[in-house]
Amino acid sequence: MCRHAAWLGPERSLASLISDPEHGLLRQSYAPRMQKYGTVNADGFGFGWYDGPRPVRYRRTVPIWGDANMPGLAAVARSSCLIAAVRSATAGMPIEESATAPFADGPWLLSHNGRVRREAVRPLAADAESACDSAWLAAAVFARLRDGLPLAGVLAEVVRAAAEGDGEARLNLLVTGGSHLAAVAWGDTLFTHLERGVLVASEPLDDRPGWRAVPDRSLLLASPDGVSVTPID
Ligand code: GLN
């Protein structure tokens, strides 16, 4: 299970998800505190942020601690909407940039923590950029968003369909279009921290009070107007 995190709120740097907090994604890449599947997240990492309506993305297959350019980039990449992930590849999945979150399509960025049998998601999309299960899941979500369907409904539909095809699927998703954020808790931990914006992360980035667990099998929606959590049944 990888680890991912996102921010929506006043502009801040990617370092606020990675290296500023004591247990940011850099630390979580080698010493996660709540990871149930896998021990380290050394199979690559990715960032996405918005500099205008289209996202900018950076993906690597090296461990995040092994990219000497990462700290400089994370310090200057600033946005009101940020997403980042460190990867522990599921057995049998390729290690390549195209298998690394965040996946992107038009204005959308998506990260998946978990695993799903590819047979359960392949019927949901025409094609994917990688053979990785997460790439297929992303393709299924993007195809529906491209049709103009609303984000919350798309995520609920894709998660239900994937879970129906694979009862063991773990489907924690983070999706953003730049002005709002959605996250699914399905099979692994998910936390939020409300401040002058909202932080969402697989596990708390620090030990400040105020981190709240999102119940399993639910959908979190965050916009500048607030945050809601609803069950996916
Ligand atoms: N299944 C995805 C992959 O192989 C995500 C892995 C994870 O969450 N650890 O990359």
Automatic annotation (TrEMBL):
<comment type="function">
    <text>Catalyzes the hydrolysis of the gamma-glutamyl amide bond of hercynyl-gamma-L-glutamyl-L-cysteine sulfoxide to produce hercynylcysteine sulfoxide, a step in the biosynthesis pathway of ergothioneine.</text>
</comment>
<protein>
    <recommendedName>
        <fullName>Gamma-glutamyl-hercynylcysteine sulfoxide hydrolase</fullName>
        <ecNumber>3.5.1.118</ecNumber>
    </recommendedName>
</protein>
<dbReference type="Pfam" id="PF13230">
    <property type="entry name" value="GATase_4"/>
</dbReference>
<keyword id="KW-0378">Hydrolase</keyword>
<dbReference type="InterPro" id="IPR017932">
    <property type="entry name" value="GATase_2_dom"/>
</dbReference>
<keyword id="KW-0315">Glutamine amidotransferase</keyword>
<dbReference type="InterPro" id="IPR026869">
    <property type="entry name" value="EgtC-like"/>
</dbReference>
<dbReference type="InterPro" id="IPR029055">
    <property type="entry name" value="Ntn_hydrolases_N"/>
</dbReference>
<comment type="pathway">
    <text>Amino-acid biosynthesis; ergothioneine biosynthesis.</text>
</comment>
<feature type="domain" description="Glutamine amidotransferase type-2">
    <location>
        <begin position="2"/>
        <end position="233"/>
    </location>
</feature>
<dbReference type="InterPro" id="IPR052373">
    <property type="entry name" value="Gamma-glu_amide_hydrolase"/>
</dbReference>
<dbReference type="InterPro" id="IPR032889">
    <property type="entry name" value="EgtC_Actinobacteria"/>
</dbReference>
<dbReference type="InterPro" id="IPR017808">
    <property type="entry name" value="EgtC"/>
</dbReference>
